[in-house]
Write the structure tokens for this entry.
Amino acid sequence: MYTLPAVLTTTREVVDDGVTGLVRPTDADALAAATASLIADPVARRKLGDAAIEHTRRFTTDALAAAHLELYRQLLEGAGGGR
């Protein structure tokens, strides 16, 4: 399995900057520099890539279904539906 970190702009919901990838401004030079830094540093590349794989486990079908069921349960309880 490949464990490559993402280099992207302004999508902080998906990537935790410096932990699961690199988030840079919408600027070609900043994106190129971030990509070059990962090419030059295999240890950082692997660390961020491994963290990214772990992070994606939150988005499995089972995890998302469980989160939605919990949300619905809380909404029903808040609306008096759980009484």
Q: What stands out?
A: The first strand starts at residue 6 and ends at 9. Strands lie at 6-9, 21-24.
